[in-house]
Specification:
The protein is of the alpha/beta class and 413 residues long. Helix content is 43%, strand content 17%. The longest helix is centred in the last third of the chain and has 22 residues, at 391-412.
């Protein structure tokens, strides 16, 4: 084992290298490109025995990844934002092929307007595709979860592709100390792709294709995919426990922080949860019983672990770094569905939309969320959803609008 100061992108590349990925179809896009550049340097230097192919688009990239994985080749790829959107036809296609591979997504907000900063709108657009999803908060977790993701994807009860997600810029280009496991130890944890499960072999020709089916077989196969995704939760817990026993780092489906005796919880995904931990510590010092819950798995959604983590709490502030137009925060809606109909009275839920386009979440905003929760609990009803946005920010936007209005008037003269 070695310890190195590396970026989140480099940690993802190390995950692919230690997993001994055989094939990397690739296409560059900010802020993901460093992953592909790092892998290309290793392949060129003979440090990684792998075939890398630059494709003409992300659509072709995912098509190639699914086709290769269906033959029993261990495949890795990576994308971000509009690239994930461009690939979306095949993002929905390859899970039906039961083609297990790992795709790292470096989250970045979607247009319009255009931004290079991160939020989770891109990856959550793929939540219904059949890909499983693991969300990371640190560079160490990116490397480790990439290894876990291969075990999960290739698990005999699952056989589905997995997205490992990390936040662009805040994590992709942040350097953190990362323990890089010894390759021999990784080989024990993650053996080669089982050839007995390979679907295509030269000596035993078979055919496979996406055919037009009637509603009866279509319903059957779609539901089989759903059942396989549900098997992902117990499979993940088994694999994570084995990883912890071998490497000493534990990754449950949920991360909980100072939540056991908490009255109030912050619930969010991704690297901004590290900011929330600091806010939790500060509020604890002020005498507020606050904790944090961070889902690592989005698909399959960890329903029962969440029910247990939230049992007996007075209120939960759900912070979504996404916005489903016409509805609100996706994570908030997912959590509400888990708590609906439970015999025990659920905690008050408050929805906060924050971090869109990489907007920072200030420490005082976490304080305000808990204040809102306390008021809502006293009133006995959930508060309306809120966008985290300050008066100073609104004034700045109004100023830019005024400048644009003047420029349009001048241009029309």
């Amino acid at each position: 084992m070695t310890r190195a100061l590396i970026t989140g992108n480099q940690a993802a590349a190390w995950g692919a290298r230690l997993a001994r990925a055989d094939y990397v179809p690739a296409f560059p896009i900010t802020p993901q490109t460093e992953i592909i550049e790092t892998l290309a340097q290793w392949v060129d230097a003979g440090q990684m025995d792998c075939r890398m192919t630059m494709m003409e688009s992300e659509h072709s990239m995912i098509t190639a990844a699914g086709a290769a994985a269906a033959t029993g080749v261990r495949v890795f790829s990576a994308t971000s934002s509009q690239g994930l959107m461009y690939a979306m036809e095949m993002i929905f296609g390859v899970p039906g092929m039961r083609a297990p591979f790992v795709l790292v997504n470096v989250s970045r907000g979607l247009q319009t307007p255009v931004t290079l900063e991160p939020d989770h709108t891109d990856v959550l657009a793929a939540r219904d595709s059949g890909f499983l999803q693991i969300h990371c908060a640190t560079c160490q977790e990116v490397l480790d979860q990439t290894l876990i993701a291969y075990r999960l994807a290739e698990h005999h009860r699952v056989r589905l592709p997995v997205i490992v997600n990390l936040d662009g810029f805040y994590l992709s280009f942040t350097r953190e100390p990362v323990e890089i496991p010894d390759p021999v130890a990784v080989d024990r944890f993650l053996p080669g792709f089982d050839p007995e499960t390979t679907r295509f072999r030269a000596g035993e020709p078979v055919s496979q294709g996406a055919v037009v089916l009637g509603s009866t077989p279509y319903s059957y196969f779609r539901y089989e995919n759903h059942l396989a995704a549900l098997q992902g939760l117990p499979a993940y817990e088994e694999i994570a426990a084995e990883f912890a026993a071998q490497f000493g780092r534990a990754y449950g489906a949920l991360e909980t922080y100072r939540s056991d005796d908490a009255e109030w919880l912050l619930l969010m995904m991704g690297s901004f949860a590290t900011k929330a931990k600091d806010a939790v510590d500060r509020m604890r010092e002020a005498g507020w019983r606050v904790g944090l819950v961070r889902p690592r798995l989005l698909r399959p959604f960890p329903d029962e672990p969440l029910r247990q983590a939230l049992a007996g709490k007075r209120g939960v502030a759900v912070i979504d770094q996404n916005l489903s137009m016409g509805k609100g925060g996706i994570l908030h809606g997912e959590l509400a569905s888990v708590l609906y109909g439970q015999p025990e009275a659920p905690p008050i839920l408050a929805s906060f939309i924050g971090g869109l386009g990489g907007r920072d979440i200030a420490p005082e905003e976490f304080y305000e969320m808990v204040r809102v929760l306390k008021r809502a609990a006293d009133e006995g009803k959930p508060p309306p959803p809120r966008l985290l946005f300050t008066a100073d920010e609104l004034r700045e936007v109004r100023k830019l609008q005024a400048v644009a209005h003047v420029e349009r008037k001048e241009a029309s003269k």
